[in-house]
Amino acid sequence: MTPDNDTKRSLQWEGKDGNPKNVSRTNHLLVIGIDEYKHHPRLNNARRDAETFRDILLDRYQFEKENVTEVFDEQATLRNILIALGNLEQKLTPTDNLVIYFSGHGSMNRRKTQGFWVPAEAEKHEADYIANDRVRAILGDMEAHHIYLIVDACFSGSMILRSADTATQLLEQYPSRRVLTSGRQQEAVSDGRPGDHSPFFSCIRQQLLQPSGGVISALELENHVINNTPRSAFQLPEAAMIFGIGDQSGKFVFYPKKDETRDWEEVKKENSVHAYKQYIQTYPNGRFVEDALWAIAQLKDDKPGYRKYIDQYPAGKYAREALARMDYIDQRDRFELAKRRGEAALRQFLLDFSDGPFAEKTREEIARIVEAEKVVKDETPEKYFENSPIHSIDSLSLPKMVQIPAGTFYMGSNEGESDEKPVHSVTVKSFFMGVYEVTVEEFEAFVLASGYQTDAEKDGGSYFWVNGKWEKKASIYWKHDAKGDLRPRSEYNHPVIHVSWNDAQAYCKWLSGRTGLTYRLPTEAEWEYAAGNGSDHTRYSWGNGDPSGKNGGNVADESKSPSGQTWATKFTGYNDGYWFTAPVGQYNPNTFGLYDMTGNVNEWCQDWYHDSYTGAPSNGSAWESPAGSYRVFRGGSWSYNPAFCRVALRGYVSPADRYDNVGFRLARTP
């Protein structure tokens, strides 16, 4: 999916620790960025990407201004680019390093499998371009220790010669000649929205803008870019040595400039566990180590984190607060356990901690259980429990539902994918919908009562996004989280994942049989109507604008992964507090009182998938005929960027498939 006003950096040619020790070297940089072309379409962000790359290296890494060569826009002619390369060839010594960044149009002669850089003044002829073979030959004449070439242009993968290569442990001390390209050999790539960055450079920028102090190797940069660029654009970056010009299996390393005061301010600004740990690793005897350890404890907000701080600073400036927080967490965990065990456990907890911070919540929970038992007895016919071991809400917690009023809305979007069209009027009958996504705890009750085995258990695991593609991990099923770890019981209030459409159907059938009520999956039309706030049909469930605070959801945002990674394409300026799934109901509900309709996990719908809305039902019913191969899911997830979180966006996979970001929500017929 390419964003609006997105430009392709292509011209179709129809021809016939373990970190290495820092060695004192001079780093040279050549940046070429071309937006303004005389005879080809203007690009949005090529020059901006090149200038930002230059500024990051000058500010954070061991590059100096006097060793930077810049060639931008109208100055980036064929002659001037070749002069810049020639001057560097004369200047470089065998101990120097050279980084080259080219951002602009690329071209491809498919018959000759020859790629080209397109200079600013070039007409639409191969003779006006700079062939990759020519660039490779020039680099081959240079005597630098490392040469690292980064190319953000269409068909840039043609710089890579196809050859078998065995993996080796690359060391900084050996010379290298490597290239990182934004796409494959015959692939057009995205330039990004005007005023933004290309998806490829966004990933480069993201990796290089880690808090200062960390060494970044070329291979680390390449792995990050290759794994993350496909999340926001249909292109597959590649990286390889440049064969035949002196590569000896080395690797270029971006060494940072150290400044403890500046680094500490940047670490505080990022405010992530990874950043604070990196600071402590870089400055083990630094002035702010105690503050960093305390910040880690606060971010983790668990007893081991606070205990680690107290063990290292028993009389520290935060010791009293750490002890108090540990006592609070202990009571919080006991309260959550009592909630799961029922009314008797809650009453015992209240006796133990009558003056504690959870005393009032405990009283409210006891009152809720008593009232809920009355509601179940009033609304559910006793005959449905006569032959069942389940007799009360203590052993069967009915899902909280809200009635969605009937209404008419326009389903689909003229701004989205082709399968969201044509936009058409749909009239939906009133129905009930689950206030929350089905949780792990609720799904566990079903499994324990029925002995059901999920598709993941029967078929050997579930799917995760790994290295730019979906891969099955063995032995993963509904008890696991989005990392593939077994969830602690404290996370059983998260939405269940690793469940297929088939599994969701089995759950609905079981719950319907136990209660006598008609539980099912929502139809695709019902889901879109409810998520988009009825006839308003908002872009996201929270509204048309960007998320803010609790008026949002669990989406790709400014939060960090456990290893410190960030999203390449995200809701900028927004932090929802979670990298993977969040407990249900953490953000404000929409106008119908539904939580997490945008983000957290994708949600299965009843319908078969069809690749357009031509012939779709207009009465809100499920589109079951003709049958297809895939079932629909909707809603976006914790890993989805703004474009993928739209209410109108449709997802589809096989009904037996299961993933780390797909769950479900119940509907009920009145």
Structure description:
The chain has 670 residues and is of the alpha/beta class. The chain has helices at 46-60, 78-91, 132-140, 199-208, 218-228, 260-270, 273-282, 289-300, 303-312, 319-341, 343-352, 359-379, 440-450, 455-458, 501-515, 524-531; strands at 10-13, 27-33, 68-72, 97-103, 106-109, 114-117, 130-131, 146-152, 176-181, 216-217, 238-241, 253-254, 401-404, 407-411, 424-428, 431-434, 462-466, 469-473, 519-520, 602-608, 631-634, 651-653, 662-663, 667-668. The strands form seven sheets. Strands 3-2-4-8-9-11 form a six-stranded mixed β-sheet, with helices on both faces. It has a four-stranded mixed β-sheet with strand order 1-5-6-7. Strand 17 and strand 18 (469-473) form a beta hairpin. Helix 10 runs antiparallel to helix 11. The longest helix is centred in the middle third of the chain and has 23 residues, at 319-341. The two termini are 39 Å apart. Residues 1-5, 10-22, 161-171 and 376-396 have low confidence and may be disordered.
